[in-house]
From TrEMBL:
It comes from Leptospira bandrabouensis. This is Lamin tail domain-containing protein. It comes from the Bacteria.
């Protein structure tokens, strides 16, 4: 920017003056003992952001000057400013320093002060008293808030109030200096009134007009940017919206109105004063809008600022600012939202206030004050480390402990006001004023202050859910440099902190960043007697014992839970993993043998449980990995989630893990709280006898001994014969399989086990017939398009004309499709063909039994052109429809009777099942499966 010729003298004389003195003061014959008013416009003597001299007075070489702004600001002001200078002695200068000290000080009561000199006099009084006398006296000309009563407008870099200038008479002028404070009422604030000989006002007017014309010729069309905003009725700063020209040149806004939009509601503000004061905006100049009169800002109605700090759009011409959520009051401190902030300690503040306030309305955000020598440096984001997190117990009325994040300064002693903490996309500046953090200091960010605990803490109104399992993610940011250090939540690590419906534990972090529930040994003794393991303000480095355990009970039914078992004497952290990679940790106290884990409180499980995340017991839950006390190593326990309901006998029994191949036994303890339910959360277990079939014929495993009460038979629906069990090892048995058996070689046979210790009798498929059902489509979109898919798994061809298909009500003979419909060629989706004219099914080949009323069938991808297409002789079975979940048998006519060859649902065994499917779904037997369980079948869907 251009300097006037005056700058040459500044350069020439600058070396003659001490750097601490004002270099632009040209002492000499230009001043007398009579005060001289000097108006300056379009001249800035200094640049930079460091504000070193905040005095309004300067005395040197027998000349004192009073400035319209603190001297460092005065030197940087490009717009309208003035000084009043005259010759005096040191005593006179000290008198004026005292006057300004009383004006700008923090005292509420002001002693008498006045000055009288050659050609002028001054007095310190209250604004209300001065205003009353001023109104009586009147004036010829006034200059206030940039506007001259003659109609001229001056422009300023800083949106701060300059002293009021009045021409009382032709020869007498007055300047009124105001206290830079927005506390209290204006009438009670002190003012310093100074009468002196008037300058040449015509010359000042010409100077203003000339400079304004120059700027209007040079200015570039454009609007400023939002630089700072604030809104809180409990603060003296009330509400303001600050805009700044970020450019090195003068801009001329094309608009003299503000537009606000929130949730589709529009508001527009404009005024004559707005238009006059913003026709041009100087480089890096600020403009403030406020309904608070103390700012000497552009007045704006309160309702236009009522939504600051929310999702609101603000526009000035082509410049748009998208406001976001910001909390202006945090604890007992207030913060403005600045787009270009610096350390709260370092930021230069013009306004005096009783508030703990971080902000500087009317000034560029980056202006900084000179620090005291030896002041600690600003804290850096990378030297702050989290050491503990507690989600709080504030939802509990008995012990409403507040949530907190505990941090430690791992670097050198520093000032924390240089930092801001960003959590859930909300910015929380750490401190509104200097906050010294010694090396190693531990401090809290807490929802509510821990009053009386003598902790280093800052209250921040962050929100934490009632149930939390992880340390939430957050950022530390250097306010000035915008450098960030992030803590990313480990979303696969779950800490079970909630016990007996209260958050009993915090999460500790050691020096390496490892996380675990707070150990007992270093928990605060103030909270431990109440069952809380936390230690706010105290860093812990205790080594953590990872305990061995065993899963003793799993209930996947109503009010699901897990029970882990221990000896009872150990204490430490228990860790286990799910199949999805998630790890879960909880604290196991001494004296506990059974620890229950559940997702929600329920009467079925009692209160003594750790709370698991919602959805833990999902359909995908099928394995756990943990350090096994029994095995002495890490083990993985897995199961098929589709078989769980079958294992629990319709959701009535808890499951107890057993060694392979038993997998699970079932609870035999009837619940005292859940009707018709068998479970034992948090207590001793009683397990059912379980029998599993091994590989080969008549080989079995059990989880206990079989004896005289055990009875075993072989057969099917046509009759049974007894078998004799023989032990072959620890909990392993076989039977004498030497025949002859009174059954056809082709018949499907089952073993039948009964024992008082079995919850229900068991059956196992001991022998299959030559032809087996491998898929069934009971519920197609078009009801007549049902089918049964069967395959010949023997070494011999089978003529299916000797076969019957039987549902739960009727029986029908099988025939080739062509023999029943000799003139029809069936069509299928996909255009594949079938063998239509035979019932002979060769080894390894398959056939489809279809409803005789069907057409345009859907067949799965495994259908082949070599497959037979069969139907039924009448319409008694498949012709009347197969119900979803219905049992189906394939039987073979041998002599005068029929023998069971294959079964879907196995109604003739002790282990029948039903599988219901939705419309368009079909069942397909898994490869290598026995078909004795619902989990042996996959469900697929027809594409409509």
């Amino acid at each position: 920017m251009q300097k006037l010729g005056f700058v040459f003298l500044f350069v020439f004389l600058g070396s003659c003056h001490n750097k601490e003195k004002s270099p632009f003061l040209l002492y000499g014959d230009g001043y007398s003992e009579s005060p001289k008013f000097e108006f300056q416009y379009g001249m800035a003597e200094e640049e930079g952001n460091l504000i070193e001299n905040t005095s309004y007075t300067q005395f040197d070489s027998g000349v004192i000057c009073l400035f319209s702004l603190p001297i460092s600001l005065y030197l940087r002001e490009l717009g309208a400013k003035f000084r009043i200078c005259w010759k005096t002695d040191e005593e006179g200068a000290n008198k004026w320093k005292q006057g300004f000290s009383l004006l700008t000080g923090d005292k509420n009561e002001y002693p008498s002060w006045n000055w009288k000199g050659k050609g002028g006099d001054a007095v310190l009084t209250e604004y209300g008293k001065w205003k009353k006398e001023s109104d009586k006296e009147g004036y010829l000309l006034e200059w206030e808030t940039q506007i001259w009563s003659s109609g001229l407008t001056t422009y300023q870099t800083f949106a701060l109030p300059h002293p009021l200038f009045l021409q009382r008479t032709k020869d007498v002028c007055e300047v009124v200096f105001f206290k830079p404070s927005i506390d209290g009422t204006r009438n009670q604030l002190p003012v310093l009134s100074f009468d002196f000989p008037c300058p040449d006002l015509n010359e000042i007017s010409d100077q203003i007009q000339t400079q304004n014309d120059k700027w209007f010729r040079e200015c570039v069309p454009g609007e400023p940017k939002v630089s700072e905003l604030f809104r809180h009725s409990e603060s003296s700063f009330q509400r303001f919206l600050e805009w700044e020209n970020p450019n090195e040149f003068v801009i001329c806004p094309s608009s003299d109105s503000l537009d606000l939009e929130k949730e589709g509601v529009h508001k527009t503000f404009f005024s004559d004063l707005f238009s006059k004061r913003t026709k041009l905006i100087l480089p890096h100049a600020t403009t403030v809008f406020s309904d608070e009169t103390g700012y000497f800002s552009i007045p704006i109605p309160k309702e236009f600022l009522a939504d600051l700090g929310t999702e609101t759009s603000v526009r000035w011409g082509n410049s748009e600012y998208q406001d976001s959520e910001f909390i202006f009051r945090q604890g007992n401190e207030f913060f403005s939202n600045q787009t270009n902030p610096t350390s709260c300690r370092n930021q230069y503040k013009f306004w005096n206030s009783k508030d703990l306030f971080c902000g500087n309305p009317g000034l560029p955000n980056r202006l900084e004050k000179k620090l005291k020598e030896g002041s600690p440096p600003a804290c850096l984001a990378n030297q702050i480390q989290i050491t503990e997190f507690y989600p709080g117990n504030h939802y509990d009325s008995q012990l409403p402990l507040p949530a907190f994040f505990e941090f430690q300064n791992m670097g050198a002693t520093c000032d924390g006001s240089s930092l801001q903490w960003i959590f859930e996309n909300t910015v929380y500046p750490l401190s509104a004023d200097e906050w010294i953090l010694e090396k190693g200091a531990v401090f809290l960010i807490t929802r509510k202050l821990w009053s009386g605990w003598n902790l280093l803490e800052k209250e921040k109104p962050f929100s934490i859910p009632k149930v939390v399992f992880q340390i939430p993610s957050f950022l530390w940011e250097n306010r000035k440099e915008k450098e960030q250090v992030s803590f990313i939540s480990n979303i696969s690590l779950y800490h079970l902190l909630r016990f007996q419906s209260q958050n009993r534990f915090s999460i500790q972090l050691n020096a390496l960043g490892a996380q675990f529930p707070h150990v007992r040994s270093e928990a605060s003794l103030n909270f431990l007697p109440y069952g809380f393991q936390i230690s706010p303000g105290s860093v812990n480095n205790t080594l953590v014992d990872n305990l061995y355990t065993d899963l003793l009970e799993y209930n996947p039914n109503q009010s699901p839970f897990l029970d882990f078992g221990f000896t009872g004497f150990e204490e430490g952290v228990v860790s286990f993993q799910r199949e999805n990679g998630n790890t879960y940790q909880f604290w196991k106290p001494k004296g506990i043998q059974f620890q229950t884990l559940a997702t929600l409180p329920s009467t079925c499980n009692g209160e003594d449980f750790y709370q698991l995340p919602d959805g833990f017991f999902s359909e995908n839950f099928h394995s756990l990995r943990y350090l096994s006390k029994e095995k002495g190593e890490s083990v993985t326990f897995s199961w098929d989630p589709l078989s769980i309901k079958e294992w629990t006998i319709g959701g009535t029994r808890s499951l107890h893990p057993e060694p392979s191949p038993i997998l699970f036994s079932r609870s035999t303890i009837s619940s005292n709280h859940c009707l018709s339910d068998f479970r034992s959360p948090g207590s001793s277990k009683l397990r059912s006898l379980e029998i599993r079939k091994g590989e080969g014929e008549f080989h079995y495993f059990t989880n206990g001994s079989l004896g005289n009460p055990t009875e075993v038979k072989l057969g099917n629906g046509n009759g049974t014969i007894p078998l004799l069990l023989q032990p072959t090892g620890v909990n392993t048995y076989s039977v004498n399989s030497q025949g002859p058996f009174p059954f056809s070689p082709e018949e499907q046979l089952y073993s039948y086990f009964t024992d008082p210790s079995l919850i229900q009798p068991n059956s196992f498929l001991e022998r299959k017939g030559p032809v087996q059902i491998e898929a069934i489509f009971p519920n197609p979109k078009d009801s007549q398009n049902e089918w049964i898919y069967l395959c010949n798994r023997s070494a011999n061809s089978e003529d299916l004309s000797f076969y019957l298909v039987e549902d739960e009500t009727s029986t029908d003979d099988l025939v080739s499709y062509q023999s029943r419909f000799p003139n029809l060629i069936p069509s299928t989706i996909g255009g594949k063909t079938f063998v239509l004219n035979t019932t002979v099914l060769h080894p390894g080949h398959c056939a489809w039994i279809v409803d005789p009323d069907g057409k345009d069938w859907f067949f799965p991808i495994f259908q082949k052109d070599s497959d037979l297409l069969l139907t039924v002789k009448t319409t008694q079975t498949i012709g009347n429809g197969i119900a979803s979940g219905e049992s189906i048998q394939i039987r073979k006519k041998i002599g005068q009777s029929s023998k069971l060859i294959s079964s879907f649902g196995h109604k003739e065994s002790f282990s029948p099942f039903r599988i219901s499917v939705a419309t368009g779904e079909f069942l397909w037997l898994k490869t290598g499966s026995e078909s004795m369980s619902t989990s042996d079948f996959e469900i697929y869907r027809e594409e409509f």
